[in-house]
């Protein structure tokens, strides 16, 4: 893969021959601005990061997390860009600047969670479980092709994100470079063999009905295949992944300490190996815990950015050849320290009673919404003798642009179900909870 092509300014959805405008903003800054002002991004303000439906202002939502990941991503991308421009003078001659490479990573990092449903990873499991186990979900299986059914039974926020970014509904028309940097898992859900040694094959990155969109992107950028069914990562996707890894490791720990789930002393002990010589216990004196946490977080993130950029420089050629396929944060000097933070976070934060109780509620909410809407759609189009007044009332709650025409016994309902999942996965936590209460008769509007 060649950097000149990987950094193309061409846009998805534009007609062939499109020439980017030379304006005050770069094409990748335009990407960033389009994302910031999009409805899917705004919805992240009320979606779970770690603590569902947080009541404390200092706890991160998907929105604040995404902004922080984007900030770290810009730093990583710009530093990596300076390295690339020095190594490949032809990039400078073609007009590429380090700030533009930082802009690609920043924009892609801004969208990295845009496809996540309400209630975080519990929401992903809830949608998958509905089709795998619930009678109202299983009823659809006989109408679908095997690869479509696998998509539904393995809801993946990364694939949902790609779907939203290329959707005509939102009209983002991002650059191919930003789309590719966003795509950490360049494969479909169903493949004959998954190479567990390749990080990029851990999950999947697009649904089967976005295959043509994905191939359009990879063809434009010259991204090669690693096998008959999988592609290589765009090298900048490693930086987007690293920005996310850095932020959730350090900042989730900070949140856990603030919530009282991890002691301050234990937090300092975990961060100290990352800080190395920059750690000075005397500077912790005569300051509040909040001030100390903020200072330690900033120092730790700075150290991790430096180590990650050095690792990128070391493995950049191997990335372009497809020989390197690991998380950059797994090969930096602080890798063991990050793993120790992850291990403790799983034990004391991600599996805390507060988180588990609200995740359990999230399962009920999403399953309940999928049940009432999915069953009403099934009765209307595939079992009309059972289409009830209640079903009719439920379907009137769907958005005005929901595709309610053209379906029937002989029509494959996969696009219909994708539209339903778009609707439910795009909800905020509180909206999903309130709608669930109303359709189940637990609460009434205005009461």
Automatic annotation (TrEMBL):
All copies of domain HD, residue ranges: 62-249
CDD domains referenced in this protein's UniProt entry, alphabetically: HDc
Gene3D superfamilies per record: eoxyguanosinetriphosphate triphosphohydrolase domain-like, Hypothetical protein af1432, putative deoxyguanosinetriphosphate triphosphohydrolase like domain
Keywords per UniProt: Hydrolase
Keyword Transport: no
SMART domains reported in the protein's UniProt record: HDc
InterPro entries in alphabetical order: dGTP_triP_hydro_central_sf (IPR023293), dGTP_triphosphohydrolase_C (IPR027432), dGTPase (IPR006261), dGTPase-like (IPR050135), HD/PDEase_dom (IPR003607), HD_domain (IPR006674), PHydrolase_assoc_dom (IPR026875)
Pfam families attached to this UniProt entry: HD, HD_assoc
Protein name in UniProt: DNTP triphosphohydrolase
Taxonomic source organism: Algoriphagus marincola
Encoding gene (name): dgt
């Amino acid at each position: 893969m060649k950097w000149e092509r990987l950094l193309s300014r061409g846009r998805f959805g534009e007609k062939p021959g499109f020439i980017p405008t030379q304006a005050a903003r770069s094409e990748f800054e335009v990407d960033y601005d389009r994302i910031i002002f999009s409805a899917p991004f705004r919805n992240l303000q009320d979606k779970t990061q770690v603590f569902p439906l947080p009541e404390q202002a200092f706890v991160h939502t998907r929105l604040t997390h995404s902004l922080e990941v984007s900030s770290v991503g810009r730093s990583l991308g710009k530093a990596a860009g300076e390295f690339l421009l020095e190594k490949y003078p032809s990039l400078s001659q073609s007009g590429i600047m380090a700030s533009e490479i930082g802009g690609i990573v920043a924009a892609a990092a801004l969208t990295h969670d845009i496809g996540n449903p309400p209630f975080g990873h519990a929401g992903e499991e809830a949608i998958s479980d509905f089709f795998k186990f619930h009678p109202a979900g299983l009823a659809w299986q006989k109408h679908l092709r095997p690869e479509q059914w696998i998509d539904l039974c393995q809801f993946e926020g990364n694939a949902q994100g790609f779907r939203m970014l290329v959707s005509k509904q939102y009209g983002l028309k991002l650059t191919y470079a930003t789309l590719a940097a966003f795509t950490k898992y360049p494969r479909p859900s169903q493949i004959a063999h998954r190479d567990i040694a390749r990080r990029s094959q851990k999950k999947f990155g697009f649904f089967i009905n976005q295959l043509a969109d994905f191939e359009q992107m990879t063809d434009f950028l010259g991204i090669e295949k690693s096998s008959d069914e999988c592609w290589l990562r765009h090298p900048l996707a490693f930086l987007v992944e690293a920005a996310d890894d850095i932020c959730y490791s350090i900042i989730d720990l900070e949140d856990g300490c603030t919530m009282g789930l991890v002691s301050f002393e234990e937090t300092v002990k975990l961060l100290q190996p990352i800080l190395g010589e920059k750690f000075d216990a005397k500077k912790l004196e005569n300051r509040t815990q909040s001030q100390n946490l903020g200072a330690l977080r900033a120092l730790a993130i700075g150290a991790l950015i430096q180590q990650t950029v050095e690792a990128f420089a070391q493995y950049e050629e191997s990335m372009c050849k497809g020989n390197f396929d690991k998380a950059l944060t797994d090969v930096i000097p602080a890798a063991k320290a990050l793993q120790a933070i992850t291990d403790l976070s799983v034990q004391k934060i991600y599996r805390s009673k507060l988180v588990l109780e609200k995740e359990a509620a999230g399962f009920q909410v999403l399953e309940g919404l999928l049940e009432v809407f999915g069953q009403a759609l099934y009765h209307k189009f595939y079992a009309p003798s059972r289409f009830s007044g209640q079903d009719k009332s439920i379907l009137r709650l769907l958005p005005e642009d929901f595709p309610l025409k053209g379906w029937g016994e002989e029509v494959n309902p996969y696009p219909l179900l994708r539209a339903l999942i778009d609707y439910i996965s795009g909800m905020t936590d509180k909206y999903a909870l309130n709608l669930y209460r109303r359709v189940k008769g637990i609460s009434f509007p205005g009461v």
